[in-house]
Amino acid sequence: MISTHLAAWAAQDTQLLLVTLAALVTIVVLISFLSIAPFLSILIGTFVAGIGAGLPLEDIAKAFSKGAGSLLGEAGIIIALGAMLGALMAESGAADRIVNTLLRYARGSIIPWMMALVALVVGLPLFFEVGLVMMAPIIFVMARRSELPIMRVAIPALAGMTTLHALLPPHPGPLIAVSALHADLGTTMLLGFLVAIPAVIIAGPLYGNFIAPRLNLAEPDQIGKLFSAREGQSQPSFLVALVTILLPVVLMLGRTVARIWVTPKTELFEMLNFFGEPIIALTVTVLFAVVVLGWGQGSSRFEVGATLRRALPPIAGLLLTIGAGGGLKQTLLSAGISDTITKIADGTHMPLILLAWIIAVALRQATGSATVATTATAGIVAPLVAGLSATHNSLMALAIGAGSVFFCHVNDAGFWMVKEYFGLNLKQTLATWSVIQTIVSLIGLGMTLLLWGLLV
């Protein structure tokens, strides 16, 4: 006799998995073989998924609009502000000043290692999307000045930022997992660093050195022009350039400090929380850059205004594509893909840490969000870890974080950001960004299993 659980599975869930696969294949075929614009391809793939899942056409359109609007409402503004800041840093010579200073201490084969370290510092309190827009001018100028392939410089930075996003508080996903699993924050951070070091090394400089020569990529034209210095422009001091790029980092880190250590609803808490909001932090930084890197460097208000306006057209296609990815994700969520993945986990019998990783992987593939995957997985496995020590719960949180970044693909905003920023085609994006995240995920799993065995 078929159980109610299996009957429910047979009626809905197999169909949902198949239509999700069909939607992803449709998107890949449209982009890769028919050269349809990514935005339109994702929109068509969304309707394939929604219709196949049995959603009414009106509900598909509403889900797509909701997902696209929600993502663009935050990520889109962040990317626009980041593009303005990057243009100001490049045109004022601030990015060149930072690169010149770094090149005093790192040349040739050392540069990828330096970029991984810089990304770790800059990306510590930042969402990946924010970190990328902050690092982009440094990556482009460094590649140009060092005469290294753009992806050899970019991949270590990407690896550093995605590893932080997956494994280390104060990023939202790891913090939520620590809370849900009652893990110790300090222990999670310490173990997270131990796991992160080999992940960044292998996914960053080592993999970058391997794959970059095989891509044979030139600097993308539009974005490259955005991050070019004005001829004859005097450069600001290194201190001014450093303060500018680290200002949003400090503001966002202050928000995290407030939420952990400052008494809620006090004036200090409210101030740190307000200025640490990513949109506020980047707005403040852009205004600071207008004054210090623009007017302070002798540019007229008309020249600064022109620089800010020039920053937006090159990212228009990127914003539409990211919004479409958010629409696809919301449509799959509305169809019930998270419930389907949860049902798979319910009947699985395997070691807890491997189970947590697999659930996070499945949810990431379905939802396109590392934070959603981490949050949902932590909630699913929390009742199973009640009797474990705080140390083992920390390793569970890290395993979940590692699973949440496995093989990013077309339903994720980060995938399209990397593709458009660095002028990659779909295959090249899979070979770089998707593989970087997979390496980080697998090394994260391996390290947590190793530490789990050592700490038993």
What would your notes on this structure say?
It is a multi-pass membrane protein. It comes from Herbaspirillum aquaticum. The protein is an all-alpha fold and 456 residues long. The chain has 21 helices and no strands. Helix 7 crosses helix 19. The longest helix is centred in the N-terminal third of the chain and has 36 residues. The chain is globular and about 65 Å long. The chain starts with a helix and ends with a helix.
Number of helices: 21
- Category by helix and strand content: mainly alpha
Morphology? globular
What is the CA-atom radius of gyration, in angstroms? 22 Å
Strand content: under 5%
The level of helicity is over 70%
* First-residue to last-residue Cα separation: 41 Å
Q: Element order, helices and strands?
A: HHHHHHHHHHHHHHHHHHHHH
What is the number of E strands?
A: 0
Largest sheet, strands/sense/barrel: none
Spans where pLDDT lies below 50 across 5 or more residues: 1-7
**Mean pLDDT rating:** 85
Give the count of structural domains: 2
Short description:
The protein has helices spanning 4-32, 38-52, 57-92, 94-105, 111-122, 128-146, 150-167, 172-181, 185-215, 221-226, 238-261, 267-275, 278-294, 301-310, 316-335, 337-346, 352-367, 370-381, 390-403, 413-421, 426-455. The chain is mostly helical and 456 residues long.
